[in-house]
Fold:
Amino acid sequence: EPEVTQTPSHQVTQMGQEVILRCVPISNHLYFYWYRQILGQKVEFLVSFYNNEISEKSEIFDDQFSVERPDGSNFTLKIRSTKLEDSAMYFCASSELFFSGAEAFFGQGTRLTVV
Amino acid sequence: TQLLEQSPQFLSIQEGENLTVYCNSSSVFSSLQWYRQEPGEGPVLLVTVVTGGEVKKLKRLTFQFGDARKDSSLHITAAQPGDTGLYLCAGAGSSNTGKLIFGQGTTLQVKP
Structure:
């Protein structure tokens, strides 16, 4: 069964360092997303991406964050200068369509720990 | 701002009991998805409901979308220990970009 894969599963980084989280969406999907989940809190939307452009971003997704689709299979989230409060599970998701009823499939997540 | 409120937040029941989890909002959603999440893993899609009043069944799980598309429920019949987990509802945002708005989740514990 096709699945979204994320690497690494766990990343520990020092405050102020740059991190890149990687995702391989399901191959025929066109819409890609990043979400995060701080321990014990809701899953929060960060950004949606289609046709090599951001289609929507949340208030959390400030100038420290960027996304890229560097090739035909990968989708990355970069955090330029990590802060302690960036520690969270980061989930990549993809969907074939975006309209009502379109189903989003999530990866297993990357646990980011900023120390 | 679209918000989804789930209730209860925590539910502990005995094997064989029935239960219902609610997902409510004051906003209309074009669709609503239910996910199950295990500790340390990503949400796994269970079902999507699109039409007001729609009912979908997945074995012992019954999902309903409210007529006004502002609320949804998940009913589990004869719960089993394997049903233990975190259940999340998520609504499609009004911006039509595929963004999902999640509820805070319901943690279900089914004791044998």
